[in-house]
Specification:
The protein is mainly α. The chain is 75% helix and 1% strand.
């Protein structure tokens, strides 16, 4: 094989054309695809999502440290944490597919989906705070409160996640446009990062500031609760450009025409409401579940998630860095592992902060979302092996971790964009094949797998590993160190478990055949179909 042939295989014509465009017309390349049919997302809409994620990131800096709070402050034994995980996962197994199927069957109009999101913003974030309350509860008390809040919030979150995915799909018929929303959400999170480090700063210099871990985490989450509610509710003010109920509208218009009623004014509106959506067509459960078989991406992810379920987690990274990283003296004050973690997180995100807005273009440059996800898995495997070898017990090891994490975060950011692209593309593909939107059942079952793997069963195996290593929590407060077995094995667990997971997903996604050309054909065919159906409504 000659050098020219090798070059052409590695850099196909569409990739070379994209590179030329980025060099010749950088401003146009940054702005993205040129949409002239009224379906381009406006800058102010992207700003709303960016600001919303900026605000929610501030609260997440505190509420997201629940696991650390349970282990280090409440000292809940690892295997008792597993009880909460198992109970929640059993509830998830019933709740998520049921709620998702129900929402697909009833084909809820946009206005109802928006109100679901607004209600979920208040109730879901309030439950986040309630499950962190101390109140003198013992380990069992904390676990029972955790189970109650988790189960209730899981139902709320399923409604909310399905609603936002359905609305995001309707913001534009083009995947390249839809994914701009998630990119600018990520930009908002990056902009919030300096403020999200405040808890780590307070905890890293505990002796100087005089706050306890509980005060830092719980009071911070309480202060930012209203901010988080507002941030989530902001996303519900989304403009709907795609009518996924066009078929229902056409059928209803035909019935009204038979009754000599002209409803053309009622059927065409900027934002579709229940009153003008036509009577919803209630699908059977079998029909709703049956559409999933057309979503190859979903099926592979589900299988990979189930295979990866036995890979144990290593617990909160804050705990690992607290005990493994070396202490340092800064301005005469002792800085513990939290300070090193703050430095690592800050420096590791530099490259990603710069490249994050171009996530969609990066995915396109690498040949589309599916190729991007394969590349991410391969790079992740190599990166985590390097992190394992370097460790974090020495300053050079910490800086090697920072360098590796810079690469992994950029690749991971592009992988997140690719995942969103593929979800949208296969929702469209399923609709083209069946006429049915499947965000509900797909999102809920994906959520079930993700929560089962990362939050429950994966945590159960991780808790078993922590229990085997003798970890109990509260060592810093007591002035002692974790057991030697924990100090020896927690870092290999934290770095090598992701290697196994990424190999599983790399192999699984290599079985899928899907190209940007397939996406373009699907989008054009669907748009033609919807235009035809809406034309029937107007004619009626």
């Amino acid at each position: 094989m000659g050098l020219r042939q090798k070059f052409e295989e590695r850099f196909p014509p569409e990739l070379r054309e994209e590179l030329k465009k980025s060099i010749r017309h950088p401003v146009s390349w940054v702005k993205g695809v040129e949409i002239k049919d009224g379906n381009r997302i406006a800058p102010y809409e992207l700003l709303v999502f960016s600001v919303a994620n900026f605000l929610s990131s501030l609260s997440g800096a505190y509420a997201g440290k629940q696991d650390f709070l349970f282990r280090e402050v409440y000292r809940v034994p690892p295997n008792l944490m597993s009880v909460g995980g198992i109970a929640t996962s059993l509830y998830d197994a019933f709740n998520d597919p049921f709620v998702g199927t129900w929402m697909d069957r009833w084909r809820l109009p946009a206005q109802k989906l928006k109100w679901i999101m607004r209600i979920a913003a208040v109730t879901g974030h309030t439950l986040d705070l309630i499950r962190m309350v101390d109140g003198g509860l013992g380990p069992w008390g904390h676990i029972l409160l955790l189970i109650f809040c988790n189960c209730l919030k899981d139902t709320i979150n399923t409604f909310d996640s399905v609603a936002i995915y359905k609305l995001r799909s309707s913001i534009s018929p083009y995947t390249q446009e839809r994914v701009r929303v998630s990119i600018w959400e990520s930009v908002g999170g990056q902009m919030a990062y300096p403020l999200t480090t405040i808890p780590l700063i307070l905890m890293g210099w505990k002796d100087t500031f005089g706050f306890s871990d509980y005060q830092i985490i719980f009071i911070g989450a309480l202060i930012f609760l209203p901010v988080n509610i507002i941030a989530s509710a902001m996303k519900s003010f989304i403009k709907v450009r795609v009518d996924f109920n066009a078929k229902l509208r056409a059928e209803e218009a035909a019935r009204q025409k038979d009754s000599q009623e002209d409803l053309s004014e009622d059927f065409i509106s900027e934002d579709f409401t229940e009153e003008n959506a036509g009577a919803p067509e209630k699908l059977s459960v079998r029909e709703t579940l049956g559409v999933v078989k057309y979503n190859k991406y979903f099926k592979v992810n589900m299988i990979c998630g189930l295979l990866a379920v036995l890979t144990p987690t290593a617990g909160d990274s804050l705990v690992q860095w607290r005990y493994l990283a070396p202490k340092a003296t800064v301005f005469g004050q002792t800085m513990s592992g939290e300070g090193w973690l703050l430095l690592k997180d800050t420096l590791s995100g530099v490259l990603n902060t710069i490249l994050n807005p171009f996530g969609r273009q990066i995915v396109n440059l690498f040949g589309g979302p599916l190729k991007m996800q394969k590349i991410k898995s391969a790079v992740d495997v190599v990166g985590h092996l390097i992190k394992f070898a370097a460790g974090i017990r020495t300053v050079p090891g910490i800086f090697i971790n920072i360098l590796v994490d810079n690469v992994l975060m950029v690749i991971g950011g592009a992988d997140g964009v690719a995942g969103n692209m593929l979800n949208y593309e296969f929702y469209d593909y399923v609709e083209l094949q069946t006429g049915i939107r499947s965000e509900g059942i797909t999102t809920s079952v994906q959520g079930l797998i993700n929560k089962t793997v990362t939050n429950n069963i994966g945590t159960v195996t991780g808790n078993a590993a922590l229990d085997w290593m003798g970890y109990r929590g509260g060592y810093l407060e007591e002035g002692s160190k974790p057991p030697e077995r924990y100090m020896k094995y927690v870092w290999p667990l934290a770095t090598l478990a992701p290697v196994i997971d990424n190999l599983i997903y790399l192999i699984g996604r290599s079985t899928i055949k899907w190209t940007p050309e397939d996406r373009e054909y699907t989008e054009s065919a669907l748009k033609e179909r919807r235009d035809m159906l809406l034309a029937e409504v107007q004619d009626s």
